[in-house]
Amino acid sequence: MSRDADADLPAGPEMPGALPEALRAELIAFRRDLHMHPELGNQEFRTTAALKARLEKAGLQPRVLAVGTGLMCDIGTEDSARSAIGGGRAGVRPMLALRADIDGLPIPDTKSVPYRSTVPDRAHACGHDVHTTVALGAGLVLAELAKSGRLPRPVRLIFQPAEEVLPGGALDTIDSGVLDGVGRLIGLHCDPKVEVGRIGLRPGPITSACDRLEVSLDGAGGHTARPHLTTDLVAAAAKVAVEVPALVARRIDARSGLAVTWGRIESGHACNVIPQHAELSGTVRCLDLAAWRTAPDLVHAAIDEIATLHRAKSQINYIRGVPPVVNEVVSTELLRDAMAVRRGQASVEDTEQSLGGEDFSWYLERVPGAMARLGVRRVGDTTRRDLHCGDFDVDEGAIQVGVELFTAAALIDGHRP
To answer: So what's the pLDDT on residue 80?
Structure first.
């Protein structure tokens, strides 16, 4: 996108949609409340109620999704919103959608902060409380602009449940009709490797596909003194664990990044008994969308070959997860321009493709869009931190940055032809 296309928009704090100090403080308090009360996928009733109440207070009309948690909320003229929900009509421009995920994780919060989780073995350890607060804040700012006629086209907020539950709550959310009338979708994800005040962007694949794999092996057990009379399931399971990843890797282009990684292997109860049953479970990750589509057949064939060689009967449960998030170029440039308008070109950095999975990908199978990585690392903090850890936390200045990014993107997108 050319910067000339945005020449009618003032840059920096003067751009419409700047975050008032009172709202900034409110959003930090809202995020801390969510952080103290994390809810697992499809159980986010308190979170949904809190969002609904605040949006209604702003004069908006949020609608709870069909699954009972999560919601969608349109901002803009009533006529535009109605026609967009019905699939659009001539003369009405498609909406820009802002997506946030709202669920927590089943792990304990190990931080010593006043807003530590009050729910045992539950934590917002992936930043979804920040994503939710950013989308809420952007919605409140855009609602004020809409009241004064300064919102150039309708915007939809999508608060999605169950991102952490394979194959992702995005599929149920899509079935609720959240993409009807949407022409473009943007999102963000906290990144503890990126400093606060900055975002990471990458056109094309930015995350990996992620599937779950469960394997059962069965055979005649017996005494360890006579393995030749048995199906040596411990040896068979070990061979599957070691040789299947290598075999799959040799049957696909190495540039696809297809990797089988085991997280659990279990068999037997006594040192002198060859068991009759063994189990393995793990993940299949893939950087390439086309290769991901062929992965189940490759993995099935490799497991069956190894199991047959060792006279074991195999049962394979290959659970489809999510495809890679593939950022569309125009949407990626929209995010780049939005951040540059607010905080300058230096606030945007290139980012690498991650092996993590993200169900934002399901939306991008249907509409163009992109996801940015939101910097949450405190300036000067050299501690290595990661997502899905009990001590995960953010510099809350990232909330304002995220709101600015979303609001600027909505305004820039709305002023384009």
So the answer is: 40
Same fold yes or no, 3-207+325-415 and 209-322: no
Question: Looking at residue 382, what is its pLDDT?
Answer: 83
Six token digits for residue 76: 């803009």
pLDDT at position 92, please? 64
DSSP letters along 80-146, please? HHHHHHTT--TTPPPEEEEEEE---BSS-----STT---STT-B--SSHHHHHHHHHHHHHHHHHHH
In CATH, the number for domain 3-207+325-415 is 3.40.630.10
| CA separation, residue 332 to residues 94, 110, 201, 206, 356 (Å) | 18, 35, 7, 11, 19
Helix (H) or strand (E) holding 218: strand 209-218
**Kind of pairing between the strands at 348-350 and 199-201:** parallel
Q: Under CATH, which architecture does the 209-322 domain have? A: 2-Layer Sandwich (3.30)
Q: Are 306 and 239 in contact (CB under 8 A)?
A: yes
Alpha-carbon gap, residue 231 to 277, rounded angstroms? 10
Distance between CA atoms of residues 55 and 147, nearest Å: 14
Domain boundaries, the chain: 3-207+325-415, 209-322
Per-residue pLDDT tens for 59-109? Answer: 999 999 999 999 999 999 554 444 334 444 445 679 999 999 999 999 999
Average pLDDT over residues 172-177: 97
Residue 300 has pLDDT above 70, yes or no: yes
Average pLDDT over residues 215-226: 95
> Measured between alpha carbons, how far is 338 from 340 in angstroms, rounded to an integer?
5
